[in-house]
Known about the structure:
Two copies of one chain form a homodimer.
Chain A: E1 7-10, H1 16-25, E2 30-33, H2 38-45, E3 49-50, H3 54-59, E4 63-66, H4 71-79, H5 84-87, E5 93-96, H6 102-113, E6 118-121, E7 124-125, H7 127-133, E8 136-141, H8 144-154, E9 158-165, H9 169-197, H10 202-210, H11 217-228, H12 237-253, H13 259-273
Helix pairs in contact in A: 1-7, 4-6, 9-11, 9-12, 10-11, 12-13
Amino acid sequence: MNGSPTIGFIGLGIMGKPMARNLLRAGYPLVVLNRSRGPVDELAAEGARAAATPREVAAASDIVITMLPDSPDVEAVVLGADGVAAGIRSGALYIDMSTIAPATARAVGAALRERGVDVLDAPVSGGEKGATDATLSIMIGGTDAAFARAEPILRLLGKNIVHVGPDGAGQVTKACNQIVVGVTIEAVAEALALAAASGVDQVAVRAALLGGFAQSKVLEVHGQRMIDRAFTPGFKSKLHRKDMNIAVNAGQEAGLQLAAAALVRERFDELLARGEGELDHSALRTLYDTPVKSASS
Amino acid sequence: MNGSPTIGFIGLGIMGKPMARNLLRAGYPLVVLNRSRGPVDELAAEGARAAATPREVAAASDIVITMLPDSPDVEAVVLGADGVAAGIRSGALYIDMSTIAPATARAVGAALRERGVDVLDAPVSGGEKGATDATLSIMIGGTDAAFARAEPILRLLGKNIVHVGPDGAGQVTKACNQIVVGVTIEAVAEALALAAASGVDQVAVRAALLGGFAQSKVLEVHGQRMIDRAFTPGFKSKLHRKDMNIAVNAGQEAGLQLAAAALVRERFDELLARGEGELDHSALRTLYDTPVKSASS
């Protein structure tokens, strides 16, 4: 093939649109598809070509990337009628950058490999800002050969790019990441709530804890958000709820009852039940705003 | 008074002995007391004077420091028969560096203040190594005047010395610290267990997570311990269990049901029930060694 390979990009949401734009700006011919029309028109105005179905995207592309909300979306877009699998060429490369269940990633990957396609699961973290600035962390599962093919493209999207292991390893790593981030947010929320309810300055507590083993990026960033009551996302609680569910289920499939992950999934359920799923995940702190009884000390 | 003030030091355990030694080496006249005789003899050989009761220690000292295992110990040593309160001079300074319940710290402090004594609660973190190397983190509650008096001495014991707030604020901050450390250890244990049970390399997962929002000192240090199965303390599980209990109870007194803190207290109970309370707190990881059922993926 001459020149840059054509990239098909499906899913132009908050994350997908700036990622696709970064590929376009780097000079890759781009074919795009999205459920709503707005972002397609935007990227078309910048030089991308619009397609009508995932099948059409795949048929026109050497590399297909998906960035979709959840496991059923990826299943439908790849394996459904007029899906990616129906159009993709043998020898093509498929990269799913959505955050989905490891089991779904493995099933979708297996179906495409049967068609002679190289497959990677490559979920990201770093949010809209990371997507825009091309500073995402990318956690990758798949063969060395597939990773070598994808690496130059992934380097246009992120900074911390780690090939963790085989098929599904990217999604497992992302699930691990979301467990640690979610549970640590709950930990910091409980600590700062205890300080506040005990009449101790949260700013001083955060500063003291940052100097020792309690130090974390979450204490630094989300702890500050909690103190400032600045719950504009960032990363929405409803999305982290989805990810905690993936993590807890992945644990169950692997024979593990992940206790704190399950607890934090419940905390997010409670926050969503209050209608606050659009708030940043650090809003877990607000669940400790109402004392259960008057203080005895 | 001429020369250095005399310091009374009660509680020469794993932490207390090296702390007392650092004060002795800095040239302070030292009067010591400990339940067992060994450490007293050791420090006496280096120039300290042994006393027979807390009352006697207090009567001979300008500054009294306690470093004891738990709340009842501090209550007994200060307020019991032949306790510190019975011997301490008006105008003396009392510093409790034990980790105890904030409510106990406030009660003991109030009793001594009635006798004209300056009081600080000043629990530490950093373990035996921090105590020996004088690099402890010290979290302090009390008046500005009491803190100003204590500061030169505290600087001989630690590096990260934070005056957080009034009476009890040091113990509240320590409880916050232990919540964050304990719950983060559980988070990292669950993540690494999920990786291992899913057949994904834990070393690669830890490295990938350290690059993003999942970063923490616990992931760095205790995550490595979990991977190496290196559970020699460090900080013993049975002590962290005690601290989680203090934290959960302090929450209840402040009107809060701290969900993850309570869960991690239960996890430590389970570890202790297995007879593994002497292991490092990162041994929470071992509770995920036994899958609950065979893997389905």
